[in-house]
Amino acid sequence: MMKQTILLTLLVGAASAQPPWVRAPEASFVGGSATQGKQHKRMEMMKMWHLTDALNLSEEEAQKFFPRYKALGEELKQIGEQQKALLEQIREKAESGEDIDKRDLDRIVKEVSELEQTRIERKQKFFEGLDDMLSPNQRARYLGFDLRFRKELREGIRDRHGPEGMKKRKKMGRMKRDRKRPRF
């Protein structure tokens, strides 16, 4: 049972660690305001601008690249929603105090793992399909772009709010989370 709990915790962590552009703004901000949706769109635009700059895309290259890139984002979003729905089933059972059947847990773990493998395959297929529009140097710069972009975002937020602001926000977030649902 301990092994299953650890595995479930890892899967929940992996699913919640999805980049924000994978999720729809409405799904990301349950009960959120229109302002949060605007922030999501603004972040998307900023990401596209940084990506265009990092890859040094010409207008013609951008017109070919971004439709494919957005299609990949939609596919990944759908996969993420499927994973989230599966993990929600287990979370609901755990919160209600209902016993979790080993077969159900194993089935969900397998399905979430298969979806994660599909995600990896889609990303690989997308990357391999960039041959016809990007140079090897551009493809190499694209490879690490997401990690660098997320790091820059985190650093920008930290710099904007300062260390004290981040500590306060973390504490407030933890208090809200504790009120909403028990942790398992």
Account of the protein in words:
Helix content is 82%, strand content 0%. It is mainly α and 184 residues long. It has two domains: 2-143, no CATH class; 153-184. Helix 1 packs antiparallel against helix 4, helix 1 (2-16) packs parallel to helix 5 (102-128) and helix 4 packs antiparallel against helix 5 (102-128). It is globular and about 55 Å long. It starts with a helix and ends with a helix. Residues 1-31 have low confidence and may be disordered.
Helix content class:
over 70%
State the total count of DSSP E strands: 0
Number of helices: 7
Mean pLDDT: 78
Q: By helix and strand content, what is the structural category?
A: mainly alpha
Inertia-based shape: globular
Instruction: Give the termini separation.
Output: 13 Å
How much beta, percentage-wise?
under 5%
Low-confidence stretches: 1-31
How many independent structural domains? 2
The H-and-E topology, N to C, reads as HHHHHHH
